[in-house]
Write a structure and sequence with these properties.
The protein has 2 domains: 2-75; 90-314, Zn-dependent exopeptidases (Aminopeptidase), CATH 3.40.630.40. The chain contains 12 helices and 10 strands. It has helices at 2-37, 42-51, 54-62, 66-75, 83-87, 105-109, 141-154, 166-172, 180-194, 211-214, 237-254, 294-314; strands at 88-90, 96-98, 116-119, 159-161, 200-205, 215-218, 221-224, 226-231, 259-265, 282-287. The strands form 3 sheets. The protein has a 6-stranded mixed beta sheet, covered by helices on one side. A hairpin with a 2-residue loop joins strand 6 (215-218) and strand 7 (221-224). The radius of gyration is 25 Å and the shape is elongated. The relative contact order is 0.12. Mean pLDDT is 78; it is low at 50-110.
Length: 315
């Protein structure tokens, strides 16, 4: 009888051990497969996200897996900087909640002073995101800012991106959307007081044009058209116009159909300033329209980032 009981105990013990081995094997295999899918930079991440929107869900779930935490160092996996997870989260009404400024390895390695400051007065301006709607993600101009930061870094230009949440500031101060330039002015002034030597300051917006007027094919890629907006009702307007002209002409030389040119605004019923009175190196750039996708915006930024780099190196 004792031998029978002992055999039963041994059998139960073996079942438990085998079960544990199978569980560990499954988790380890899953971890390896998941890490093999990881990309090495934001560009690949965005493209993968657009092609396969399930990737975002898998990436989010993976981050809380205990075995991922245990084996990640052993496997020495390259973890990509995710614009979506580390910088932007959208609530159902698409109001932005800003979390953190991602640390780009390319930027950190550069031993040069910050040359460019990038911000978005209208942070909630969004692009088409049909593939991402199931996850309540709406790619927008803030994502474009971080893409611009990374592309400039690859061209040897260090850029800062505004870390402040204009939407929250408006809500906390009972200010409506029309006061966005007043809010961005506060944060921009603080940035300029902290670091006065930016060679270029870019306020990235999204236009309201339909797809057929906001898109162009260049090098067999669909790109979002750009335009520059310059306010005329301030003392720096001539210098701001000169900055915009230089950039626009450089872009036209290489990609004539990419730019829609410079739009000047002033007089009654117009903003006419756009905070450009704070610095002669401020430009407002419209990239694409509401029907453009984030990969079309990415394609555009890939084209203009080297040109901006050339401009910075010449100034």
């Amino acid at each position: 009888m004792k031998k029978i009981k002992l055999k039963k105990r041994k059998f139960k013990f073996r079942i438990i051990v085998y079960g544990l081995i199978m569980f560990l094997g499954y988790e380890l295999s899953f971890n390896i497969i998941m890490n093999l899918k990881l990309v090495n930079n934001n560009e690949d991440f965005i493209k993968a996200l657009i092609i396969d929107s399930n990737y975002h869900l898998l990436y989010e779930k993976k981050s809380s897996d205990i075995f991922t935490k245990l084996f990640s160092k052993v496997l020495n996996v390259n973890k990509p900087v995710s614009i979506l997870e580390n910088t932007l989260h959208f609530t159902p009404n698409e109001n932005l909640t800003y979390v953190n400024n991602p640390k780009l390895e390319e930027v950190e390695k550069l031993e040069v002073p910050q040359a460019v400051y990038i911000y978005n007065t209208h942070q909630s301006e969004a692009y088409s995101g049909d593939a991402l709607e199931g996850y309540n993600i709406k790619p927008g101009v803030m994502m474009a800012s971080y893409i611009m930061q990374e592309k400039l870094a690859k061209n040897g230009i260090k850029a800062d991106v505004m870390e402040d949440n204009i939407t929250d500031y408006l809500n906390l101060n009972n200010m409506n959307y029309s006061k966005s330039y007043e809010a961005s002015r506060k944060f921009l002034t603080e940035a300029l007081n902290k670091y006065k030597d930016y060679k270029l300051i870019i306020d990235i917006h999204r236009d309201s044009l339909p797809k057929d007027k906001s898109t162009v094919i260049i090098n067999n890629k669909s790109c979002a058209k750009i335009s520059f907006v310059v306010g005329l009702d301030h003392k720096n307007s001539n210098q701001n116009m000169e900055t915009a002209n230089k950039l626009n002409e450089k872009i036209k030389i290489k990609y004539q159909t990419l730019t829609r040119g410079i739009i000047s605004k002033g007089g009654a019923g117009s903003n006419g300033i756009y905070n450009q009175d704070l610095n002669p190196n401020i430009v407002l750039i419209e990239i694409g329209g509401p029907e453009n996708t984030i990969d079309e915006v990415l394609n555009t930024i890939e084209l203009i980032a080297p040109i901006i780099g050339e401009y910075i190196n010449e100034t």
